[in-house]
Structure formats: structure tokens, C-alpha cells
Design a protein that fits this description.
Length: 196
């Protein structure tokens, strides 16, 4: 852990697990996918053991969500009429190893970031959360978008690098080593125990 990485107040901190769904994980090669889910499960066990708030975010679309996607949206317009990412389908559920328990909430989104189309921000505000630990797939999608948005909302941020993955290993590495450290502390699962 870098010497300047601050410890966190677990009562004001939350773990946010993002897009750990078969449809999204399928973009990562199988050996990397298995390791990624294991690291996310380690992070989840640490947060639960620290009595920390845990929130899950997943992407899935209903009929009205598909209808609301404008044709100019380069990333999402292709989903219209394709029968993919449909809310309620097995491919959009959170994988078994990371299933929510107890009072852990799940936020459904219809864009890349975890905030813009969900109630996650309001929920965190109500709980007095000012620090987020983030893990997710993909690094160039939900992780990047969520870090940017959360940083603009003045959250203190930690990104668990080995609990994040991307289909493009170069994008993954550049973001974790060169881009995200400007707004977040980039750590490994082995460093989690030093945060509390």
C-alpha cells in the first residue's frame, strides 16, 4: 500500500460492486473471469466482516428503458430490439458468488455509470456515506464512469484493482496505473485489511 493511502471510517464507507453479471463478465476471458470473481468475493467478505454498507449495481433494461434510448447513443442504441440485457433474464442477475444478503440493496442501471440512472447517490447520502470502495466490470465502462462521477460528488474513493476487469487488458492497465489514481486510491485486495 502506498504510504499516503488513508485509512477509512467504516461507518461512513460503502463497498459498491458493479456489473458482476454473466452478460458483462462474458466479455472477460474465462481464467481472468474466475480470478476476478474470486477477488470480488474476497472484497465482499472483507466489507461484510467490517460491518460496512454494501451496494450492488447491475445493468438491465425493461421495455420502456429500451424505448428511451435515442438512436444517437452510440453505446446503447445497438441494444434496441436485440433481445439482450433484458431485466429478469439470467444473464442480468448478479453471479452466485456475489449474491446480495440481508439489507444489501441492488440498484438497476441503464447506462454505464452507477449514479446517473439509479437511486444509489440518494441512498449513500441518506446513510451518511462519504467514502466508496469500488470493484467492477468493466474498468473502461462502469468503473471509469463511476469514479469520475463519484469524484465530482466529492467522495473519497478506493478502487480495488484486482477486483476490476476489462476485455481489453491495455485499457485496464492504463486506467488503473495512469488515469484513475488522479481521483482514487488504487489498491489490491491484499491491502484491504490495512484500511480499517
Amino acid at each position: 500500500m502506498v504510504d499516503d493511502t488513508p485509512r477509512l471510517d467504516r461507518e461512513r464507507s460503502a463497498l459498491v460492486l458493479m456489473d458482476f453479471q454473466p452478460a458483462v463478465l462474458g466479455s472477460v476471458d474465462e481464467p481472468s473471469r474466475l480470478k476476478l470473481v474470486q477477488k470480488a468475493a474476497t472484497t465482499l467478505a472483507w466489507a461484510r466482516g467490517s460491518d460496512m454498507i454494501v451496494a450492488h449495481v447491475r445493468v438491465a433494461f425493461g421495455d420502456s428503458d429500451f424505448a428511451a434510448i435515442p438512436s444517437r447513443n452510440k453505446a446503447f442504441a445497438a441494444l434496441q430490439g436485440g433481445g439482450m440485457m433484458i431485466d429478469g433474464s439470467p444473464e442480468c442477475e448478479i453471479v452466485d458468488d456475489l449474491k446480495p444478503v440481508g439489507d444489501e440493496l441492488v440498484f438497476r442501471k441503464v447506462r454505464f455509470g452507477s449514479f446517473s440512472t439509479t437511486g444509489l447517490g440518494s441512498y449513500l447520502q441518506e446513510k451518511g456515506i462519504d467514502t466508496l470502495i469500488l470493484a467492477g466490470v468493466s474498468t473502461g465502462g462502469v468503473v471509469l464512469s463511476t469514479v469520475r462521477d463519484a469524484a465530482d460528488q466529492d467522495f473519497q474513493l478506493y478502487v480495488v484493482a484486482d477486483a476490476c476487469g476489462d476485455a481489453d487488458s491495455t485499457v485496464h492497465t492504463v486506467l488503473l496505473e495512469r488515469v484513475l489514481p488522479h481521483q482514487a486510491y488504487v489498491i489490491e485486495t491484499t491491502e484491504l485489511s490495512h484500511l480499517v
